[in-house]
Amino acid sequence: SAIYELSCEAYKHLGKTSNYYWIDPDGSGTLGPLKVYCNMTEDKVWTTVYHDLQMQTSVGGSSLEKLSVLQLNYSATMDQISAITSSAEYCEQFISYSCKMSRLLNTPEGNPHTWWVGKANEKHYYWGGSGPGIQKCACGIERNCTDPKYYCNCDADYKQWRKDSGMLSYKEHLPVSQVVVGDLDRPGSEAKVSVGPVRCQGDRNYWNAASFVTSSSYLHFSTFQGETSADISFYFKTSASDGVFLENLGNTDFIKLELKSATQVSFSFDVGNGPVEIVVRSPNPLNDDQWHRVNAERNVKQASLQVDQLPLEVRKAPTEGHTRLELYSQLYVGAAGGQQGFLGCIRSLRMNGVTLDLEERAKVTPGVKPGCSGHCTSYGMYCANGGKCVEKYNGYSCDCSKTAYDGPFCIKDVGAFFEEGMWLRYNFHSPGTSMKDLVSRTLLSSADPEITAPDLSLNKEELSFSFSTTKSPCVLLYVSSYTPDFIAVLVNPTGHLQIRYNLGGTKEPYNIDIDHRNMANGQPHTVNVTRNGQDIVLQLDHYPPTSYRLPATSDIQFNSPKALFLGKVIEIGKIDQDIYKYNTPGFTGCLSRVQFNQIAPLKAALRLTNASSHVHIQGELVESNCGASPLTIPPMSAATDPWHLDSASADFPYNGQAIGDGVNRNSAIIGGVIAVVIFTILCTLVFLIRYMFRHKGTYHTNEAKGAESAESADAAIMNNDPNFTETIDESKKEWLI
Q: Where are the transmembrane segments (predicted)?
């Protein structure tokens, strides 16, 4: 059977993003798995279970029945939902009653006309925004009901539509299984009921942990009841090479889990037929201070042990003999009976579907501390794009503030749609700060102690963003200075990309022209430019990076940076003639995840950050991911890059002014030769194989005709279906390579 995670929290810690997942809240217990929606937000994980009642379900109006019962059927059983709510830190469910001459709770004194039924079939006479035992609606608690004599808007019994709504958040009463509506039997009485899905946040079981500080410390719990079946799972983290995780004894029977060595976990037990031991050996050390998961199961037929994703070790039970595990002592977690105890952390310890409260027990036990630290060693790799992992008492979160991304793992592009004539300016220093402080803090990355701020110039820049547009020419990005220095990224009138550096020392600005590709084709494109002194490296989309060098006479300092512009340059003083021309009518299209050194100007404009005061916007900035580039295709080698073959000069994808030392040209030619040789060998092989099999009876398949040359099944379908290729214009083909 498939092993499902216990909760949405567990999926988040596998680096999974928001989606529908199967969870199994009681492990291999009786409940079985259910499908929920896991919403991974920046700091919380929400588990959502849906039901079938339509929003704004009408009741009354035509019929004159006394009571109307609305039944909610969930995509899970009540027991499954209870397992989620009981382990959650907080749950809520939205409920709303819209009324026209239909009273709700009949406040202040009367018997409620309408109620809802929750867990365990109990009736509840409070409404959303209020709490158990308080016969009021939200407006009665906040004292803002339409008629202050009543504690619900609907209780005023008006002929106009009114509404009472809010969150039910006493999780022991959730979910809502029925809403019973009364007061519909008068002419003109009407009501509409809405109930949202159940949403729960946090998983107290997943992070319930204890740290064992000395090798003689232990926690004890009541005897484990696992006579015919035992299912034990937990996570551990240690730098010690051995120690007992847990043990429970009987007269001769026992059950025990231990770390035998740095690479061995052992599960041993005796049900009266002599001791049995199952060992999982790991190819890598398990005492690496990272979380590892252990799952041990035993029933009358067999026993098994699994560690992380390593192969399951299974031992069949003897056909005759004893089958019941009879235990008497307490269950010891950690050191037991003078043995070498476990040093480190154990968390989420479940015995037959019940999570043991290690945290509570640790609070009153010497040598054991509640909770655990150091989650970033295990989960920090999920914080992408320069996001920093932040330790939390129960888990971790990703701090995306120094990146151009957001979302729980810093992988969500922050981007915007620019209408014609719109522009954004980011000032590198705001009126309140000294230029020196700010430049040294944001523009110079902290890793470069050799650059001091007084000369206020940059020896290196890192610039990355993605964009899409169909209009050319235009200015994508421009960095101005208090001197004639500037950096610009432009789309020229023919739709090609140009990167322009003016650092002084040369008559004309230094241009990198990428002439092979139309960039104004409405597709998302990514641009990464890094300059270190004279050396510039450019990477475009998923093509290999290309190197350029500034002319020998060029200055390598970008002096006194002043502001960064997106979409248009509005700067005082003399401006480059081409850029001036490209400025009208301005950029139309999408820009996404713009980052210049430590600065993310678009994010500062769209999210309230401490840099937001540096931003000035002309026009209305609309957040959109239309410029987000799906960089899922790995970089190509020179030999397989099709642009080498169909461009007029088969040197490399873009023909800059920097073929300089000819190394790039040589490597490309060598790549080409190798490709031709491989191709010839392949052709010969195909010819030989066909020749050999020609006499062995023919074998026809009904495959797509284009399949021989296709790299995958999808490609074969595309090669074979004429409509498919026609719908993809030239510009999009590079995404299918």
A: 668-689
